[in-house]
């Protein structure tokens, strides 16, 4: 009677626990099952690794126990994988992952498969796969790291095979399984307390976890205890070798999902509803409504009439942008006198602080002044440049244009509540007949401004400002400023900070020949 | 309109959209005269990129989710899963303010152009701004500006302390008036969560770009609220978007383990930055001052540095011990900051 009840409860619990993932996709690998994209790529890679022909050379446990000489390790001594029944024939007798791969075999395989040049990158990828629980170190249940040496690794059970299903062995690949819940964890911990103390004793953090689970899952604890006992009973029926292997796999699995304190799990995801997470398919995107589609069709229609440039000219533009700006890119050319982050010397920042009081205390660097000549946008985005430009125009009695442009820019970025007042102020100062700083715009633009004034908003003067910007400032004032004596004087006075000697030896070459490397072909 | 005619209408529009897309692709293809790779042969290879770790900022108790540089080029604001926002003097590695948020997963934070205001938000669906001052307790002066109907994933001040532009899990972007909390403009067009936004570098251009889990990259007119250009190509969530400093191209990073470059004037994708050995998604991208280097932070804890013009990886940076969640080039281009789920921020130069 107790026996039947036990069995029924176990069945119930199994239904409750078993991830439907594998069965849902018909036992087929290929279905994405809502895998996070890198999950798909990782699983593909691990599957290739386990390929009997072209995968990572595997070694049996026996070899491992009799400590293989390293010369032998390097040799591609392949065994047919008997780890997991990859072909998927149900009921075939299989032995669970009794084979191992060596660290350097793994690394070598990855380097070849992914055309990696430096082994550090392959070690890094191997470590990632290990962190995600695709394989794990045989001799170290605490840390999940891969080393490029003869240390041995065991593959994790990829998915529910028939054999494993019969034996209630869960699948351990992260994305073939939904995130395991606390009931499963409780069963696992409870099971270990029922087994040999020496080999299966719980770690401190696991004891704590068990205690708190016991409190929180009080009403389920009978079932949990029964299930744990059932699993221990089943385990006893297995061969010793299999038992060791499946124990280690189970342990490694929980090492990934319930890491010891202080260790972050790779499987954690942002708690954001629509993003991918292991084992869960992604909720569908919001259903598109009629308005969505109308909007899309309108955009597509507009796009059809768009004027385009050739890809070659687009690339040419990017290239010439680089040619112009490379000397201002600290990643290429060391800033003068030095990069503060590298040398701890903040002179560079002092010389480039936004507002310099020119000709009184500070002088901008030559390089900075040169940059003003690249484009009007460059000049205007440097507060010192803007100040000099405004001074120049004031002397020419034509600074109403730049003042107007700045006022409009300020309007666009003002608090909503200030908008009506500011619109009126700008109109009175620059546009009204007989205004103190009347700007010179054509009748058509003026007409537009009057139209817009009926409904004052932050964009009321945009058309007028654009007119002023392109016609007056950009095509007239700016070129005159760049050709003026004032600009030339500033440029001539511009300081050229000496490149300081700095002792970061690896950067030494760059310091000696800052331009040499990049202007060879420019 | 009854539901039958509406669904007919929808059916019709879907068909029209499909045929328009084919036509559009044809048009774009006509001008696709050359590949980046063929041009790149004429370029010098970048050989001496020498970016090294210079600072480690420790203080968050959990995953760092977002960070932004102050316009003063040395301060950084960062937000974390533990509900904290920290203002760092990255140069000295000192913490100047530590603010506790009413939410965990503070997924976005940003510095205002004046450097005296920061904004942040996340799973609380809100954007909160904090004026920074040395005298008062900063948190007493906080102000909730806006509320979305889902989490706020990204925010940026559009060249002004008075407005803030946000992107959200509710698939919209929105422009808000900081003082009144008034919604100035909403931007509808994405069909899934907006993950990232970036402003066009030119102050006169009123445009910004957004990237979303619907795999699309959209360019918006801030004034009209209209989407003016769209780019397809990524095969998964677009996690990060960034304008090229020249303003004519947009770099993107995606869960599909690629970064891409879309050109606005050529109206198409012009480069894919991918490698067989990169199997994890890219969370954050940024470009160097000249636009030649693309820095990308990945889920596999690394930062890869790409040569945008030669489509080659020129270097990779190891250091973080978990996902790289955010990455920014400093305003003057002298340094790169990265934030990670390992709870630290790092500055590289």
Task: Give keywords.
heterodimer; A: 522 residues; mainly alpha; Arc Repressor Mutant, subunit A; Regulator of G-protein Signalling 4, domain 2; four-stranded antiparallel β-sheet; 26 helices; B: 349 residues; mainly beta; Methylamine Dehydrogenase, Chain H; 2 helices; globular
Question: In short, what is this structure?
Answer:
The complex is a heterodimer of chains A (522) and B (349). Chain A is an all-alpha fold.
Describe the secondary-structure layout.
The complex is a heterodimer of chains A (522) and B (349).
Chain A: H1 2-17, H2 21-24, H3 37-49, E1 59-60, H4 61-65, H5 70-74, E2 99-102, H6 103-113, H7 119-131, E3 135-137, E4 152-155, H8 162-166, H9 182-193, H10 197-200, H11 204-216, H12 221-236, H13 240-257, H14 290-304, H15 311-325, H16 340-343, H17 347-351, H18 366-372, H19 376-381, H20 383-395, H21 400-412, H22 419-431, H23 443-453, H24 462-483, H25 485-493, H26 508-512
Helix pairs in contact in A: 1-12, 6-7, 9-11, 9-12, 21-22, 21-24
Chain B: H1 3-30, H2 36-40, E1 53-58, E2 64-69, E3 75-80, E4 84-89, E5 94-100, E6 108-111, E7 117-121, E8 126-131, E9 143-147, E10 152-156, E11 163-168, E12 172-177, E13 183-188, E14 194-199, E15 207-212, E16 217-221, E17 227-231, E18 238-243, E19 249-254, E20 259-263, E21 268-273, E22 282-287, E23 293-298, E24 303-307, E25 312-317, E26 324-329, E27 336-340, E28 344-348
Antiparallel strand pairs in B: 1-28, 2-3, 3-4, 4-5, 6-7, 7-8, 8-9, 10-11, 11-12, 12-13, 14-15, 15-16, 16-17, 18-19, 19-20, 20-21, 22-23, 23-24, 24-25, 26-27, 27-28
